[in-house]
Amino acid sequence: MSSVASSRRFRHATMQDFPQMQQIYAHARELMARTGNPTQWGHTFPQEEVVRDDIAHRRSMLLVDMVDGRERILAQFALCPGEDPTYASIDGAWLDDDAYVTIHRIASSGLVRHAARECIAWALKQYGNVRADTHPNNKAMQHVLETSGFARCGLIQLIDRPTDTTRIAYQRHEW
Predict the structure, then answer these.
(1) Local structure of residue 118 (DSSP, 8 states)
(2) Alpha carbon of 71 to those of 2, 7, 20, 92, 104: distances in Å?
(3) Residue from 23, 111, 126 nearest 71 by CA
(4) Structural contact between residues 82 and 22, judged by C-beta atoms closer than 8 angstroms
(5) What is the SS3 assignment for 91?
(6) Which residues are 130's β-sheet partners?
């Protein structure tokens, strides 16, 4: 008998999801390192306390499905409402100054294709105005954002890290 996946859905992460989320982030770090982007997340990002804080403040979202009665996490991301202090200064220009949400720390489990794209599409449908950023070496995420209709707005500097802080900033606004 073959296993059949039921429809996908989004839900908030809980602390019960934390161990599996850490495994998915480890998988993402390994994949980035293998594909020419070893420094964006290094060996320790996102830090454990950041992930716990995302869960506690209901910023962590999971894309899940069911296979043979068991839920699987297909992808995860932090959805951060309100102004992101990192985005206050940009070498370039945002599309607008309207309220937005930011997608951070997106990672796929590798179980299905296009999971990150599905997460981004969901965020756009829910919120309409979405910003994101990624490392200049993260060609895969640049491709996902650009083929999802995001505009490359310029460069930002991360304010929470001591080194390797330049990121490409993106925005999409569903008018």
Answers:
(1) H
(2) 16, 11, 12, 42, 23
(3) 111
(4) no
(5) strand
(6) 101, 172
Q: Are 62 and 15 in contact (CB under 8 A)?
A: no
Least confident span in 66-70, 91-95, 103-107? 66-70
Paired tokens of 78: 């932090």
Mean pLDDT of 89-110: 96
Residue type, 65: D
Extract the tokens encoding 166: 């330049």
User: What DSSP string describes 46-89?
Assistant: SPHHHHHHHHHTT-EEEEEEEETTEEEEEEEEEEEES--GGGGS
**pLDDT per residue as tens digits for the range 134-165:** 999 999 999 999 999 999 999 999 987 767 78
Please state, as a whole number, how many other Cβ atoms lie within 10 Å of the Cβ of residue 125.
10
Q: Which amino acid is at 68?
A: D
> How large is the average pLDDT for residues 15-23?
97
The CA–CA distances, whole Å, from 40 to 43, 89, 105, 122 equal 9, 20, 11, 24
